[in-house]
Amino acid sequence: MTADSFTLAGKTYQSRLLVGTGKYKDFEQTRAAIIESGAEIVTVAIRRTNIGQSPDEASLLDYVSPKEFTYLPNTAGCFSAVDAVRTSRLARELLDGHALVKLEIFGSPTNLYPNMPETLIAAKELVADGFDVMVYCADDPVQARMLEDIGCIAVMPLASIIGSGMGVLNPWNVRLIVDQISVPVLLDAGVGTASDATIAMELGCEAVLMNSALAYADDPVRMARAMRRAVQAGRDAYLAGRMAKKHYLAEASSPTAGLIHTESAPAAH
Description:
With 269 residues, this protein is of the alpha/beta class.
């Protein structure tokens, strides 16, 4: 079977599942779930996870090594372009010049919906500063195109509100984004269970990113395994090309020619 890889910032990955590193009960569980997911890229909230900012506390680096995984620092917890740019630069410093960053700027602390005006401002500044910017955004094909034009290397429209587990609420917009831009589209936020991940991949997304769906499951490690399989299944289905949907069949679904016919049994007397 031919390897089905995808590329971000010049690096090729086999796994199309990206996972977060927060919200687990401890770093041991974090590592176990990541390993079971098969993910090669892990996101790290610089404002919430210790990767050296607090030398007296346990560090994620001791459990999930940047030598094993590609770190994707994100700006979760930022509500302005100024804060997001500052946080991104801190991440680059902590990770020895690491240029890859996931930009996310929230508009409200109650729903964490993306603030797109501030996101566009920050994206321009970060791209100009040499960052490889992947960006959490609204499922808006017009603004997705704007982010591509700015120079972002990937757009990450939400499936639904972060942490909601509501799944893909607007598949039509996601497909519009996939069809209209050339950079990778990764579905981000709102995945709750394996079928959500499969739907995202069937829509043509390059990959899916999730955290809460794993960390808040009753068994995070087992859910990680389910998500790995779901992403693979959705990708295979997308590449295979599903049959057309029909309201009814114009012909029998099974052939009628060449069937074996038997004579009717004689009537009982």
